[in-house]
Amino acid sequence: MASPITYVDYCTGVVQATAVMFTSFYALDYLHPIGGAFDRFMKKQTNKSGSPLSEEEIRAKRSQLYIKIVSMAHCLYTSYQFFHVISKCPEFYELFSRIILNLDKDAITSKEMLDKIWFTSHDSIYHATQVLLGFFLYELTIVHKWEHYSRVMILHHVLPLIFIPVAAVERRGHWILNMLLTHEMSTPFLCIKGILDTFKVKKNNPIYSLNGLLLTFTFLGIRCGGAIGMLSAVLYDPSYWKDPIIAFLLPSVLAPPFFNVFWGFKLIRGIINILLGKKKEKKVDNKKE
């Protein structure tokens, strides 16, 4: 079936989504709607050397706050798009239910199901992935404002910009593209963690703990757990890789699990450090008593 969208049309949609997010961030950063309260709070804080925060440091933290707010809005919308797409496409819902939720071996090894994975397409995926890529492109344009710069994160943003447009326009692996949207479901909790850290909320605060649990569940359960069924199905029958488009797209399918394993280990290490920190605090309190 011929694609109803051209590369020019698809990329135009990506640029439009980028422009919306770029404008939203700079509008928030310029207008600074929570200016007075935020600035007063930050002027009472100190940096790592113990000195009061400079105006430049306060401005950097302000930018980080609005970056997280835009990121949260994008991720919530992208998560909604995942459910919207599977509600519109019964084949996608069937694949999600049998392969991801139930790890149905018969589905994973079924030619009918594998054909649906690679060749079933749905027009709703165009807008959903344009918004996703628009966010990645927007973040690359403000890389100089990132709080934590890393080559892994750059690679995580660049690879989808290469592979997803081809998959979308050539109508290959639309179900896989929709599954990639689920990876954004954990990001709002990561943003909330950053906001809580900005406002110096203690790690033993119930809100901080609850957010940590939700981050852990969505990251390990959805991002990492969802990859098990998807990879099992994608790698089951290499004969599909003879299709040049599918062969080209394989890196985009295999890369996300590696990124998630890398960040998953860091997440688990952070949880262990928090738990160990709580134990140390309890020991100190017991000694004081």
Q: What would your notes on this structure say?
A:
The chain is 78% helix and 0% strand. The protein has helices at 7-31, 35-43, 55-88, 90-101, 105-108, 111-119, 124-141, 151-169, 174-181, 187-198, 206-236, 244-288. α1 runs antiparallel to α3 (55-88) and α10 (187-198) packs antiparallel against α11.
Topology:
Elements: H1 7-31, H2 35-43, H3 55-88, H4 90-101, H5 105-108, H6 111-119, H7 124-141, H8 151-169, H9 174-181, H10 187-198, H11 206-236, H12 244-288
Helix pairs in contact: 1-3, 1-7, 3-4, 3-7, 3-10, 7-8, 7-9, 8-12, 10-11, 11-12
- pLDDT below 50 for ≥5 consecutive residues: which ranges? none
By DSSP (H or I, 4+ residues per run), the number of helices equals: 12
Briefly note the structural class of the backbone: mainly alpha
Average residue pLDDT: 89
Shape: globular
Count every beta strand, where a strand is a DSSP E run of 2 or more residues.
0
Oligomer: single chain
Radius of gyration: 21 Å
* Proportion of helical residues: over 70%
Q: Can you write the helix and strand succession as a string?
A: HHHHHHHHHHHH
Amino- and carboxy-terminal Cα gap: 74 Å
Please summarize the sheet with the most strands.
none
Strand content: under 5%
